[in-house]
Design brief:
heterodimer, A: 45 residues, alpha+beta, B: 243 residues, 5-stranded mixed beta sheet, 4-stranded mixed beta sheet
C-alpha cells in the first residue's frame, strides 16, 4: 500500500512538473497579417 | 511557266521582308532611354456617348511597385520576465503588377492613359514605423526610420514585454516620408495603422520563472520518488504486452 501511494505521488508530481515545463517553454502562438499595398496608396499627398 | 512557279514564292518573300521591316520599326520605339521615364502606365477605359480621341492624364508621382505589408506578432504570451518580438515587413510583391482597369457602361469606349511618374527618381523615400501600446514595455519606444529604395524590403522589429497579465491593445503605424530631391520639400502619408491585441497569461497565478523552476524541481523529485518503482513499471508493461 505504501509502495502504491509512493508510486501514485511520483506520477502526480511528474505529471504536474512536465505540464509546467511544457507551458513555460512552448513557443507563443503567432498571428500573421498580410496586407497588399498598391502604388496608388504610396503616392504623394 | 517558270514565272508562275516563282510568283507565290516572290510574294511570300516580299511579305516576310515587309513584316521584318515593320517589326524592326515598331521595336525601335521601345528602346529604353536613360532619361527618367514614367514608372508605370495605367489604362482606364471609360464609356462615353460621344466619340473622342484618347487623352493622356498626368497623375501625381507614385512608388512604381506593389508592396506587401506583413505584420507578425504573438497573439498570446507569458507575462513576467519573458519578452517577444513584433515584426513588420514592407516587401516588394513580385506577383503584384499594375493591371489596367476597364469600366464599360455605354456604347463608345475611350481609352485614357494615366502616366504615373516614378517617385524614386524625384524623392527620397523613408519608411517610418511606430508601435503604440499602453502598459507594455516596448523597445524601441520611439518611431524607427528606414530608407525605402527600389526593389528592397524594409523590416522593423519591436521587443515587447508584458509585466502583468491581461489584454494589451496597440497600434502599429507605418508612414512614408517623402523629401523632394531638388527642393527639399517634405511630405508624409500614413500607409497603414493596424490594431493588434496581445493577451498576457500566467499558469494559475505562477509566473514563467516560477513555473520553470517548479517544473525542473518537480521532475527531479518525481524521478527520485518513482525510481524504486521502475522495475515494477517495466515488469507491468511487459506483462500487459504478453497478454
Amino acid at each position: 500500500m505504501n509502495r502504491k501511494a509512493r508510486l501514485f505521488l511520483a506520477i502526480i508530481i511528474l505529471a504536474i512538473s512536465v505540464s509546467l515545463l511544457i507551458w513555460a517553454y512552448s513557443p507563443n502562438p503567432r498571428e500573421t497579417r498580410v496586407q497588399p499595398i498598391a502604388p496608388s496608396e504610396m503616392q504623394l499627398p | 511557266m517558270d514565272k508562275h512557279n516563282y510568283f507565290p514564292r516572290n510574294i511570300s518573300i516580299t511579305a516576310c521582308a515587309l513584316m521584318l521591316i515593320l517589326a524592326s520599326i515598331s521595336c525601335a520605339g521601345s528602346v529604353e532611354s536613360s532619361a527618367p521615364r514614367p514608372a508605370s502606365t495605367q489604362l482606364v477605359v471609360e464609356a462615353t456617348t460621344q466619340p473622342s480621341q484618347p487623352t493622356q492624364i498626368s497623375a501625381p508621382p507614385a512608388i512604381p511597385e506593389t508592396r506587401r505589408l506583413t505584420l507578425e506578432f504573438p497573439s498570446k504570451m507569458r507575462a513576467g520576465v519573458e519578452g517577444d518580438i513584433i515584426r513588420l515587413t514592407l516587401e516588394v510583391d513580385d506577383l503584384g503588377n499594375i493591371t489596367p482597369t476597364a469600366q464599360i457602361n455605354g456604347n463608345v469606349v475611350v481609352g485614357q492613359t494615366i502616366e504615373i511618374p516614378d517617385l524614386y527618381e524625384t524623392h527620397n523615400v523613408i519608411a517610418e514605423a511606430r508601435l503604440d501600446m499602453a502598459g507594455m514595455e516596448v523597445s524601441p519606444p520611439e518611431a524607427t526610420l528606414e530608407p525605402l529604395t527600389r526593389g528592397r524590403s524594409v523590416t522593423f522589429y519591436w521587443s515587447i514585454r508584458p509585466q502583468e497579465t491581461g489584454t494589451y491593445r496597440g497600434t502599429v503605424w507605418l508612414h512614408l516620408n517623402f523629401a523632394d530631391k531638388s527642393t527639399g520639400e517634405q511630405s508624409r502619408i500614413a500607409v497603414s495603422a493596424q490594431i493588434i491585441e496581445i493577451e498576457a497569461v500566467d499558469f494559475f497565478g505562477l509566473s514563467v520563472n516560477v513555473a520553470r523552476t517548479s517544473g525542473v524541481i518537480g521532475s527531479l523529485v518525481g524521478g527520485v520518488f518513482g525510481f524504486p518503482f521502475i522495475e515494477d513499471i517495466i515488469k507491468f508493461l511487459f506483462r500487459r504486452r504478453k497478454k
